[in-house]
TrEMBL record:
The keyword Repeat applies. It comes from Pongo abelii. PANTHER family: PTHR48051, RAS SUPPRESSOR PROTEIN 1. Keywords: Leucine-rich repeat, Repeat. This is FLII isoform 12. The lineage of its organism: Eukaryota, Metazoa, Chordata, Craniata, Vertebrata.
Length: 133
């Protein structure tokens, strides 16, 4: 399975990311929606081909989103909707190739100004159902 490119682990009851993910060096798309994840910490930043992370409807808090995933060169899709985020992930502004960003249905109350200065290629942004004014 080392040549696997798409992996869906939706509705599997995951509480943490399996360390075996590190062996999937060609993985491009990871979907771990509707689980019991409180963190995405693990081996994601060691996956050089990773382009999309969909972690919708978990129990992710701000501390559960690792800063190092935003240094992935090809990361272009991030869906962290329906979680428990209270702010934008700190290093999100470093995701220079981000095209799709979904942070809807969280508890975010402010968006840093510099976020949109750096995310120049952004095509789709969903911030609905947050606490923005």
């Amino acid at each position: 399975m080392t040549s696997l490119r798409w992996l869906k682990l939706n509705r599997t009851g995951l509480c943490y990311l399996p360390e075996e993910l590190a062996a999937l060096q060609k993985l491009e798309h990871l979907s771990v929606s509707h689980n019991n994840l409180t963190t995405l910490h693990g081996e994601l930043s060691s996956l050089p081909s990773l382009r999309a992370i969909v972690a919708r409807a978990n129990s992710l808090k701000n501390s559960g989103v690792p800063d190092d995933i935003f240094k992935l060169d090809d990361l272009s899709v991030l869906d962290l909707s329906h979680n428990q985020l209270t702010e934008c992930p700190r290093e999100l502004e470093n995701a220079k190739n981000m095209l799709v960003l979904n942070l809807s249905h969280n508890s975010i109350d402010t968006i840093p100004n510099q976020l949109f200065i750096n995310l120049t290629d952004l095509l789709y942004l969903d911030l609905s159902e947050n606490r923005l004014e």
